[in-house]
Amino acid sequence: MKVVVDLTRCQGYAQCAFAAPDVFVIQGDEALLYDTDPDDAQREKIVRAAAACPVQAIFLDRDDTRDDTRIRKPAPETHVAAPGPGEAFKRTGRIVIVGAYLAGLRAGRMLRQEGFTGSLTVIGDEPHAPYDRPPLSKQVLMGQVPARRTGLPRLDELDAHWRFGVAATGLDLSGKQVLLADGAKVGFDRLLIATGVRAHPWPNEAEAALDGLFALHTPEDAEGLRQRLAAGPGRVLVIGAGFTGCEVVSACRELDLQVTVLDRSPAPLAGALGAVIGGVAAQMQRDNGVDLRCGVRVESLEGDDSGRLRRARLSDGSTLDVEVAVAALGSIRNVECIRRLLTRNFGPPHRPKRIDGMMSDLLGIVTRLIDDFTGEDGSGTVRVDLVDDFAYPFPVTVICELLGVPREDEPRFQVMSGAVIDTADPTTGGIVERQRRRAKAVAVLADACLDTDPEVHRILTEKPFPQWADVVTFEDWLSPRTALARG
Fold first, then answer.
1. Whole-angstrom distance, CA of residue 301 vs CA of residue 253
2. Cα 148 to Cα 141, 275, 384, distances in angstroms
3. CATH class of 3-71
4. How far is CA 113 from CA 56, 61, 76, 107, 117, in A?
């Protein structure tokens, strides 16, 4: 039996804790903890708890609702319509979802709910079926739920072909195929890229290899950290006071472990919730015995001869003796494949390690920019506008250098990327303005692909823009070539 609570919907009414207190627990004022895989003896109470939830945030395996029709969703109404291309596609089409995470899972469910009965394939680079991430930094760390029992329920509803443990490495748009790391190819008629995020790695590779430094993103991460916390380290260092960092701090205090948390911001959660709420969070942490140090960063992590983490040197000049550290540095969107598609017309593929040893290249870029300055005023002095002549060209030129964009193509690359970035901002302008920006991006992309990708140019120029503009999302416009693959 599997249980998942949508914590973005949960309002802390605690009705579930009254109905099934052995499964749902309100910790402190409003933090909800729950058993993701409870004993079957709790079934009746859990079903009542799900029915009592005012915001319907509790989800169970489909079979677990059989004893109570109150929480069943009514079957969708069927409408009789004349058959057309759309209806035929619903029956025989092929949809591939790249990303076996929550977004991909929900998209697949919505497709089925909307009547799609064709072939559905879900590709994920992790070896697991989709799992619930919030418990990894809460119940799993405190030993209340095993990491292996955090899987999401009702996967059978998708009737999908799952490809776990293999990454999608490329797209053949003309052949409509997803290229996989194991050499396989998966054909599609429509494609959804929902590749999610990964934990931001510790920036120093040598320090990142120290035994005792953890990130927290996967069940394996959570289980490894849980074992170290259960061993009772003298002090835990949490680097980063965002949501994940604060949850790890809370778990450490629940386990009666001494914990120090560092963050460059003036308060925990300040970046997400603002300084006022951050100040409240800071006081709560200090009241609960947390050694909170804001405005302080780690200068270096040090280990012993066996490669185990032993101490951290901080920017305030102090040193901490620690055996366990958690790098809660936020996340990185998994968009490398999309980025390669965007820049394929401008040179060789991105090389992940190319930044290593680029000092001479960067110095060469600076020298080249300076050599290009021609604003002499007659006195032999070169007049330079730091913004127009240096501050803007330098980062763009560096980006082009990293992506392998030839120098002669830099202006064209700037125009294309600028149009896409401007289009991708959903927070400015009304619907007419947003559609105008999208139309501009389409025109720029079509021009960029005229010589290098005639098929994409044809799609962009021949297909009526409004026909597909209304279904293009923010993520689509971060990956316009991938949006085209949706047809």
1. 23
2. 12, 37, 60
3. alpha beta
4. 18, 16, 7, 10, 9
Whether the Cβ atoms of residue 483 and residue 472 lie closer than 8 Å to each other: yes
* Percent of the chain at pLDDT exceeding 90: 32
Maximum average pLDDT range among 63-77, 110-124, 448-462: 110-124
Instruction: Give the DSSP letter of residue 429.
Output: S
Range in 62-76, 113-127, 327-341, 447-461 with the lowest mean pLDDT: 62-76
CATH topology of domain 205-332: FAD/NAD(P)-binding domain (3.50.50)
Q: Which tens digits make up the pLDDT trace of 388-402?
A: 566 656 666 776 666
Is 85-195 in the same CATH topology as 3-71?
no
Q: Please give the single-letter amino acid code of residue 330.
A: G
Distance, CA of 187 to CA of 171 (rounded, Å):
10
User: Which residues, other chains included, contact 62 with Cβ-Cβ below 8 Å and sequence gap of 6+?
Assistant: 153, 154, 156, 157
Distances (CA, A) of 92 to 86, 105, 111, 158: 10, 20, 13, 15
Domain range list for the chain: 3-71, 85-195, 205-332, 339-485
pLDDT score at 79: 46
Alpha helices, H only, 231-274: 243-254, 270-273
- Whether the per-residue pLDDT at 379 is higher than 60: the answer is no
Per-residue model confidence as pLDDT tens digits over 159-194: 999 999 998 888 887 888 988 989 999 999 999 888
Burial (CB < 10 A; 0-12, 13-18, 19+), residue 81, is exposed
Architecture of the domain spanning 85-195: 3-Layer(bba) Sandwich (3.50)
Decide if 255 contacts 288 (C-beta within 8 A): no
Structure tokens at 94: 């092929």
Q: Of 55-69, 131-145, 218-232, 463-477, which range is least confident?
A: 463-477
3-state helix/strand/coil string of 175-217: CCEEEECCCCEEECCEEEECCCEEECCCCCHHHHCCECEECCC
